Amino acid sequence: MENEVNTAVQPIDDERLKVAIRSGLERGKRQFVPRRRKRLSLGIAAALICLLVATAGAAKVSPAFAEALQRIPSLGIFLKLINEDTALLSSIDQDLLQPVGQTVEKEGKRLTVEALIADDRRLVIFYSTNMSGGYDGGLRFDLYDEHGKSLGGALTTDHVFTDNAQLQSSGNEDYIDLLLDHGEKMPSKVRFLALQNGTTLEFDLVIDLDRFAGMMRNYEINQTIEIDGQKLHVVRARQSPLILELIVRKDKTNTKEIPGFVNLRLQDDSGRSWSSGITFIGDEMSLFFKNGYFQKPKRLTLLADGLFMFQKGQKVVVDLEKNIMLEAPDDRLSLGTVDPRFQRDGDDFRTFAITLTGLDEIDQLRRGGNILSYNFIDANGAVHPRAEVNGTFTTSLSRQDNETSMYYPILRKKYPQPLTFTVMDYPGYVLQPIELELIP
Fold this sequence. Notes:
By secondary structure, the protein is mainly β. It is about 10% helix and about 45% strand.
């Protein structure tokens, strides 16, 4: 990879930031319509410091970034929220941010899509709203392509409620972050729905695919990790503006399922680290890091403390009429009581709970896994799906101390008991340091 400039950051005073913004606007004046001059706020100054950290400490703001600061008044708050996401910050600096400015209001509820940024696998939508976020607020989001197909992937929300946000904010500005499933491509049009207590606000968003066209690097890795007789083959890396993706394949001879790594991170030559998201298709997993196309380190190293793993072929057998669990991987799992907050009973389905206890600190690192399979077998050998709620298979969970409860909807039928589920995920791990040079 190309060499990266020195990442040491010197203190940047307010006057230098003002000069940087003016310089950026001047360099971009032939590209943009001039707008009214605005005084540099403390929020914008803090946001610029985040950018300067991400761009090697140079007191220089691109025309694209300077214009975005003027066009989107709340950009300073959004930049605080993403202040550790160097892929997003550097992509904004490289003119990948799309200002939107669409507002929809219904029944006193209002939401404005301020801007978005995308590449072929990741979509981030910045919004402001008068609706309360978080679990208690009941605000949720759905995304569909132009054909009405739901965009599958990992969706994160409610960033203002996370510990690392540290904002004096009411939560009116936030963003959603969608990482598409492996094999999916970003559509040119997205239907974005914000839903709260029966009210739906709808947006039709256009994704400018040309902004990131051709921004891709691929690297062949072809190295193997082996722990406790289980093997993972790290095949290749793929770098786009907003993510670095590693493709990892499970060895076909493995006797245990491997749902992930213990304390996985990516580290560059300066010591900066990125944590990972993960998705699966069959025996192939994709590891995602927020180290994007515009980061150019001299060296990248994959580090972990071990692997999560559990025995293949395990079953959970329950008798829901007698409310007993007849078979489980171990005695940490039992039938539980449904928390009223997660009671989703309807006319055609009801909810049952399972509870995991005795989770140690490492187990708790990934206790959000879905234990039970989507299909189950009744006592007569017939196969049934779990209930669909609002057109989807839904699993909810709650956490406290060293235990986790999961809630599963099931149709109101008189199934011959007991019911047998396949174990899809379960706590378990082997600790052994992993260090793999991806770009030596």
